[in-house]
């Protein structure tokens, strides 16, 4: 303390204190263990119990994993090799690998789903990661049509013409815009629907007659395994998000008709079990559709799964909108942005960011719900496991198949979860 | 209150009120449900006027200026802004909104966009300005509010005073002919109030038509050419700042002034 101020002021600091490092007893692994595992009698007991449970599990599951048999063509062969010891018989996965992946898809066409899967990775890259060149988004846009053609085969002209439906809608919109924007909006929806329902078939037939470019058609009932889970899951995920956004916006709309249609849809779909919707898709729709219509079963299931997830998605996104301060709406309005621009540029990006955990929750739920299609006779992995166990070679096998299917689903779902955490980090701008 | 202004000499050379009418409000009424918030409001604002609206909370002063760019809808009477009448016609509303800038109490910057993106968004999407040009204009106004170095940060990284100056710059990027301020300094720490008021004074010195809802009576005395006092949804008194503060007529105004200036 200097004497200069001591007579005039009670206390004054002349030099500011430098930063110091914490005492060594306050950092390090020993401290972590003491604080987190043995901080008191109760925690110590719980830690010891936890260790016991882990020990017990290893004691019993360890040999089962350790004695794993990979090379066996039937359960009886496994049992011979094991000679009474406990052990997992993974031979079934090796033996039925292709079936678990592709169902009854023709062997010589396995390259088609594999190629589709690889192309899917490329198509997703620019959507999932901002660092990927934006030009790849064009590929993402044509991928759905390419994937349809590769998986189901047939003439290339049908998916090409189906893609052109969006162009038809755009042209209808620009032409009718001169009349009025309401007519243009109706036209933009009606024209492609008419195109898809009545024109794609005949026109496609004519062009295919002149320039036949086609690969072998493979019917939906030959699809199966993880392929069908991924087809239904990915399509459902990709479609349910935009539909959910529109439903959430519709539910907040000032126009009573739009609002009540959206509320009615959401409440109805959320109020019924998915399995009833799937039964409706597989059985009841046949009564309503004109006789002889061939409305693909996988397509029907995709529509139902998508609508189901979209209803949940709408509510998740509505929660995101509700969390935005009123000031964001007002600032967007005050700057002269119209409804769609303020939604797209200001409100939706923020609402979606807030809703990421809920959205991914819905995605994961949707992906796991694809296993319900087994009840309407589609051979997804669960359906196949029943079929495999019905075979005399593998009769009596339970754990290995289910464990493998569970592991595959876990990898997909955990991947989605991890990606969502990465995305939240990327979008974090609030610096709280 | 007025000590914040004491060190600031206001240059009045460009503060000229023209005869041209910028905003014409006649016999305007508004209700929230059955609650009558604004009663028979008549107000004419000429181009170049700097009006301060004062009054106790709940007197309807914020609602009044929010009616001018239709953030609130009025139910009776007429509001004409720059020759455009505000009705339910969306085209008119968008036209008025792009001519009228607004600054909010809580800044309302867009937290997911950088400062520069906040400033260029409306010029690019509403005015269809090319991106580079919009960025040049944005940097010009960021310089003007003295925070060009913050252009690539996000709003959450800035102090309250800086955010409010960004909000003012964001409005100015649309080249508005009228600026509305809704209690722009009420959410700020005392240290930051001055930097925002300085920006507003500069704007007034350039001849901007301004309507400010504020409790900063020092600002009113230094800059305003008219002070409007509101209570219970009505305009109780309006006068030039000198007479308003030194010679208030209504009892309600005298009480209000004694309360805010008395200590």
Descriptors:
heterodimer; A: 432 residues; mainly alpha; MetI-like fold; two-stranded antiparallel ribbon; B: 263 residues; alpha/beta; six-stranded mixed β-sheet; four-stranded antiparallel β-sheet; 10 strands; globular
The gist of it:
The complex is a heterodimer of chains A (432) and B (263). Chain A has 432 residues and is mainly α.
Oligomer: heterodimer
**In what order do the strands lie side by side in the largest sheet of chain B?**
6-7-8-3-9-10
CATH superfamily of one domain in chain A: MetI-like
Helix content of chain A: 55-70%
Shape of chain B: globular
Describe the main β-sheet of chain B briefly.
6 strands, mixed
> What's the alpha carbon Rg of chain A, rounded to whole Å?
29 Å
Helix content of chain B: 25-40%
Order of helices and strands of chain A: HHHHHHHEHHEHHHHHHHH
Question: What's the pLDDT, averaged over the residues of chain A?
Answer: 88
Structural class, judged by helices and strands of chain A? mainly alpha
How many helices of chain B? The count is 9
CATH class of one domain in chain A: Mainly Alpha
Task: Outline the low-pLDDT stretches of chain B.
Answer: none
CATH level 3 topology of one domain in chain A: MetI-like fold
Strand-pairing-aware structural class of chain B: alpha/beta
The count of β-strands of chain A is 2
Provide the β-strand percentage band of chain B: 15-25%
Q: Count of helices of chain A?
A: 17
Q: Whole-number radius of gyration of chain B?
A: 18 Å
Order of helices and strands of chain B: EEEHEEHEHHHEHEHEEHH
């Amino acid at each position: 303390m200097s004497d200069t101020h001591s007579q005039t002021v009670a206390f004054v600091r002349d030099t500011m204190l430098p930063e110091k490092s914490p005492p060594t007893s306050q950092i390090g692994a020993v401290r972590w263990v003491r604080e987190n595992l043995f901080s008191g009698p109760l925690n110590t007991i719980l830690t010891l119990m936890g260790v016991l449970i882990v020990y017990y599990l290893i004691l019993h599951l360890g040999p089962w994993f350790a004695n794993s048999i990979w090379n066996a063509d039937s359960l009886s062969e496994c049992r011979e090799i094991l000679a009474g010891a406990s052990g997992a018989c993974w031979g079934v996965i090796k033996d039925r690998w292709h079936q678990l992946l592709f169902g009854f898809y023709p062997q010589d066409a396995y390259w088609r789903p594999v190629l589709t899967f690889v192309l899917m990775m490329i198509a997703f890259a620019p959507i999932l990661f901002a660092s990927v060149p934006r030009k790849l988004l064009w590929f993402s846009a044509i991928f759905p049509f390419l994937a349809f053609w590769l998986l189901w085969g047939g003439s290339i002209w049908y998916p090409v013409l189906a893609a052109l439906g969006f162009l038809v809608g755009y042209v209808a919109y620009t032409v009718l815009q001169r009349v009025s924007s309401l007519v243009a909006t109706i036209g933009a929806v009606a024209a492609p629907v008419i195109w898809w329902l009545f024109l794609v078939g005949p026109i496609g037939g004519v062009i295919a007659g002149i320039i036949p470019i086609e690969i072998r058609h493979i019917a939906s009932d030959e699809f199966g395994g993880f392929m069908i889970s991924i087809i239904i899951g990915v399509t459902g995920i990709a479609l349910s998000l935009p539909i959910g956004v529109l439903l959430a916006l519709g539910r907040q709309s000032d126009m009573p008709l739009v609002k009540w249609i959206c509320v009615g849809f959401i409440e109805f779909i959320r109020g019924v079990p998915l399995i009833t919707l799937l039964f409706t898709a597989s059985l009841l729709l046949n009564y309503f559709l004109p006789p002889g219509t061939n409305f693909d079963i996988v397509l029907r299931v995709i529509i139902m799964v998508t609508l189901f997830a979209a209803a949940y998605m709408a509510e998740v996104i509505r929660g995101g909108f509700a969390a935005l301060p009123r000031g964001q709406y007002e600032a967007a309005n005050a700057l002269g942005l119209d409804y769609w621009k303020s939604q797209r540029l200001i409100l939706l990006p923020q609402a979606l960011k807030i809703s990421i955990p809920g959205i991914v929750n819905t995605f994961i739920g949707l992906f796991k719900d694809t296993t319900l299609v087994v009840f309407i006779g589609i051979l997804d992995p669960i359906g196949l496991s029943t079929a495999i166990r019905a075979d005399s070679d593998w009769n009596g096998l339970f754990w290995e198949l289910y464990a493998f299917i569970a592991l595959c689903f876990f990898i997909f779902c955990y991947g989605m979860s991890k990606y969502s955490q990465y995305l939240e980090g990327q979008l974090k701008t609030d610096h709280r | 209150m007025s000590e914040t202004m004491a060190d600031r000499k206001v240059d009045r050379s460009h503060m000229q009120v023209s005869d041209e009418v910028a905003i014409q409000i006649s016999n305007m009424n508004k209700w929230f449900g059955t609650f009558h918030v604004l009663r028979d409001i008549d107000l004419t604002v000429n181009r170049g006027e700097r009006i301060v609206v004062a009054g106790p909370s709940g007197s309807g002063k914020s609602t009044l200026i929010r009616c001018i760019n239709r953030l609130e809808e009025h139910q009776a009477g007429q509001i004409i802004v720059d020759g455009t009448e505000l009705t339910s016609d969306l085209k008119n509303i968008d036209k008025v909104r792009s001519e009228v800038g607004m600054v909010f109490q809580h800044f309302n910057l867009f937290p997911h966009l950088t400062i520069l993106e906040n400033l260029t968004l409306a010029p690019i999407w509403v005015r269809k300005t090319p991106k580079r040009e919009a960025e040049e204009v944005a940097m010009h106004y960021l310089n003007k509010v003295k925070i060009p170095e913050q252009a690539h940060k996000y709003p959450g990284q800035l102090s309250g005073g800086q955010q409010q100056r960004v909000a003012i710059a964001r409005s100015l990027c649309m080249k508005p002919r009228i600026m509305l301020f809704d209690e722009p300094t009420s959410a700020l720490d005392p240290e930051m109030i001055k930097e925002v008021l300085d920006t507003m004074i500069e704007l007034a010195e350039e001849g901007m038509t301004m309507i400010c809802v504020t409790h900063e009576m020092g600002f009113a005395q230094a800059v305003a050419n008219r002070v409007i006092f509101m209570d219970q949804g009505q305009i109780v008194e309006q006068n030039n700042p000198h007479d308003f503060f030194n010679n208030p007529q209504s009892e309600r105004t005298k009480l209000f002034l004694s309360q805010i200036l008395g200590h």
